[in-house]
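User: For my dataset I need records formatted as: sequence, then structure tokens, nothing else. Please produce one.
Assistant:
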Amino acid sequence: MPRKMTMTEKILAAHAGKAQVTPGENVWVNVDILMTHDVCGPGTIGIFRQQFGGTSGGAKVWDNTRIPIIPDHYIFTADGKCHRNVQILRDFVKEQGIKYYYDPDFLDTAPGSGMPNPYRDPRKTNYKGVCHKALPEEGHCRPGEILLGTDSHTCTAGAFGEFATGVGNTDAAFTLGTGKTWLKVPPTMRFTFHGQIPPYLTAKDLILAVIGDIGFAGATYKAMYFAGEGIGSLTLEDRMTLTNMAIEAGGKNGICDVDEKTLAYVRARSNRPDWTIYHEDAGAEYDYENEWDLNTLEPLVAKPHSPDNKALARECKSVKLDRAYIGSCTGGKITDMIFAANILNGNSVKIPTFVVPGSTEVHADMLRLGLDGEPVRDGQPTVYSALEKAGCLIGAASCAACLGGPRDTFGRLNEPINCISTTNRNFPGRMGHKDAGVYLASPLTVAASALTGHVTDPREYVSEPIATGSAGVS
């Protein structure tokens, strides 16, 4: 009798050409998409050239239509080494005829060129912003596929019902040349959420609940499957927050069921016509199971210095804050911006509040959409204007301070201060200064806290559902 399998197992089995696989089994799989960026791309390219013959040996990538290259981490800086990395990407793209390269076309990589002037119009640049947001926007995410990336948060794409995971430069270089990789089948952990998402919670609260329960290493090399009607009630963008932070528990990948929300987005975006939808088998075996009732879950934060240092937001109101930060692949999506803007609209922030769109598309949507997620109407504020009038400092789309970066990075914590942030990681030095304290929270909690200067439960500001309309839908 065939073994009952999980979604992750089915995807790996199909890509290995096998009828079934079991956790712990090592398999060769065919890869659908390999993504790299300006931080790890140069290293991957160097290993590829070394092992496959380089330019002089005529080495060619396995498929120049399946390798999106997305500069995003260290773009808005005067650092010459960061500029050099982008030039390495440009040279490789030209050499290999890479079809999907999203160039920061405003960036001069000549030595001594200094801080670049950002794009003038987010709709008129080839640059896209954060790779994990750009991948689905540009049609590289589809159900049932295997997507690898040289970034730990590549697991974000699991929200689309695919196997997505981060790999190192050596593994990426091998895939670059062969289109294959060697994977161990992970056991699956199931996290079930019951009920409908209430107006004061977002997926950030859900994933902090999970990580707080199992610990920052509790899912090491395991698939994290997010299930239940509670997950179905989330927007597709909010599901991306869940899967994005699977790595914060050590997960190999995060994955969600495919539903009509998923398919509507993929049909509108995919640059390939076909994909396969997999479902969990009834009776599939799980390494671990837990469940939550969304009606009883409260807004959470992760205190310094670990994503599993969970606490209720209302229990941290004595924590004085020096800065608020809204952005990153976890908190810089258009729906995140709408959540924050609805709380900040008509109010003024009490502490410096930095806002960084996750992509140039998000930036453009902030300029054209109202607080209900629909095209702005006469007399109504846009998402952008509501944030700006509240006193937020709004930067260009990028990873910005999420990864710290050079000292001139927008929003970087250059002093030992306390910051509440929608980012995904709060280890010492992650956002800059090693002694800064980073409190991870939802965009609702961050926005509420920006208004008070201390950690604040968003239920003080929101009681009714916040409409997101057509934002981030297709």
